Amino acid sequence: MAVLDEPIKGVPMAKNYINGEWVESKGEIIDVVNPATYKTIGKVGISTKEEIDSAVQAAQEAFHDWRRTPPVTRCRYLFRFRELLEENFEELSRVQTQEHGKCIDESRGETRRGIENVEVSCGIPTLMMGDCLEDIASGIDEYLIRQPLGVFGVIGPFNFPFMIPLWSAPYAVATGNTVVIKPSSEVPFSQTKITELAEEAGFPPGVWNMVHGGRTVVGGMLEHPNIQGITFVGSTPVMRDVIYPGCGKSGKRCIAQGGAANILVIMPDCNVEATIPGLMTSFFGNAGQRCLAGQTLVIVGDDDAFYKDFVEKVTDRARNIRVGYGLDESVQMGPVRDKQKKERILNYIEIGMKEGATLKLDGRKAKEIVGNYPDTCFLGPTIMEKVSREMRIVREEIFGPTMGIIRVKTLDEAIEICNESPYHNGHAIFTSNGKSARQFQYDCISGNIGINIGIVAPMAFFPFSGMAGSFLGILHTQGKEAIRFFTESKVCIHRWL
Amino acid sequence: MNLRTASETLSFIRELEEKAALFYEKLAERFPEKREEFLIFAKENRKTNKQIQMAYQSVITDAIEGCYAFNLEADDYAFDTDLPDTAKLSDAAAKALAIEGKILACYALGAEQSGSLLADVPRNFKIVMKKRNDRLEKLKSFTSS
User: Fold this and answer.
1) Which of A19, A471, B62, B97 could share a disulfide with A109, CB 3.0–4.6 Å?
2) How much is the ipTM here?
């Protein structure tokens, strides 16, 4: 199969979008590098404090009229926006692959997930409805109405450059708020393209703003008195030490989604043939760079033959994964995002071996890169055996294409391992036994639970959940919880004399 | 060539359908007495491509196994569309039946392999297979003409 065309041509500058205008940042300019080809594909500015202030001011000024725009009208902008996203589906997907490295199937999946959030937010006239009870006392009625709050900051990570800001931004603007989005400076072009389409959809100036950058922008958002709340997806240390306390200090609402080290439990009664593709997707999909990726595989039971056969099948399948540039349609695993991330993953593999794990499949160097691209950011899938629950490769987030295998005797023990993990984002079980599935669902501490699903990614109309270590806040992004987050409940009691 | 990902498999299937569509358009020119039928077949092939592409783009998410859904050998489904100048309608229909056999075999194995992995895509493969029964009957009737 041929390599699909790259949509980003030349070396464009990713500009900020403030108050309906595209403006180049006056801050430091850095290169955006395609991790597969290791070529510079663009440039992006690290915005200054003044630029953030300018975006927030524009958003604040736009809020006055935007909140007075009827929800049915606001959702028409979103319908137009949705249609434009759909029309540009393929280009949007290829941009993600070009700047991030993920396979084209994965990018299209990301595009679909993002669009679904816009679709859900199109239902805002219904979703935003309040409650009413007549005659709470004789002649007195009580209402609950939901009102927007003002400007929200949306901080996105590098691993899902298209989708994750859309877990928040469409709901924020649908409910009558205005937004300032900060994409990861490593992958600025997906949000740039989205913002071009938001502009084409006709959102009034200041409703939808985008400011590129890094810590300066995050700090500026946290400190800004006119930002009412922040949604953040990124690492747990930043979530725990910067975002959550920063929002608390300045009295902002906060949804903070952090890292994960998910555990997938294999029961001996699972459907092996159907399970293995799910494991490949979970552990090695997106090159392991997602907060719902599997990191540890816990195989339950004392049947040596099952264990051996299962591990062999998983290893064989992983060994044959095609590694290469994601725009080649035949590729099953792309590179990790950059050299530093690759080094970090390699370091974790070394740590695992020092702590006693053995390499069943050594992916530290990809055995073959389809298309002969430089191996700067590529890894192969790594599988480690003889892993134990106290090891750092179980308890810390690796964020790479690695699988550590632990063997236990009982499901209770497997659930204990899940529950003692510092992260509780997306643990899963593979079984054909309903009782085991129910026990896992009931007892396992995890915001998202998979039963025969390796990537427990909630659809747009459900909250993207997460618990301790992986999440701080109360309400989550997506669906009805996002509507609650982006609105204040105002209770009104009427008595007409 | 071994096809594994949804993207490459569906691109391959699109190529098969389009190649068959072009073949039917040629037959429509060559056999005016069956022009309508052959043009309908070509139109259906292109409609099928749209339908499957839509199913793929609607269902593809990061939660399903798009990169691991298939294990098809492309060579098993390759076909040529060459027809000798002397070929009669019955020869053309026999050739078309052979082509349909290849395409339907690809759908059948693809549906089986991706059955629990790609949700709506294998379901659409099966819908196409069911619809093609009428076409097969028509082509069979042409072979006796």
Assistant:
1) B62
2) 0.92
